[in-house]
Amino acid sequence: MRKLGFILVLISIFSISCKVHLSKYDKKCKKTNTFIFLFNKTVKYPLKLIVDGKEIPIIHKKGDKLYIYNLKDGEHEIDFISDFYIFNRPVKRIKKGKGLLCYQVVLVTKYPKDFYKDKLKKPPIGKRIVNFFKFWKSRKEEKQINKNEVYAVLKD
């Protein structure tokens, strides 16, 4: 009888002392209405973010985390478009809400030099250079982003 009582006391102590573990990203998502993409490499070149068929403005900084602010709960279709990177896993149909996903890891690789030869039509070099200069010019000018609508920030 003593052993049973001792075991019950130990079980109750362990069950009380155990905490539900939330990662730092879960805590950050629960406080604010955000969604976080974690990239395996730092992204420093231009990137377009499309959520539900609508282009979302991104505040570009060099970083490996993309925070999407003011994203409503529900199911979203999210795509990344870039002339410089390949995103290994297509990101589609993300459900965001209570008890659901609030961050995701995405694998990023740079385009190899010979990638376009067999698979896709290569965009002209002039177009890529123009896009790159547009990106740097827009980076110097601070964009006026409405903080009440959906926007994204790329940072460390």
UniProtKB/TrEMBL annotation:
It comes from the Bacteria. InterPro entries: RNaseA_AS (IPR023411). This is Lipoprotein.
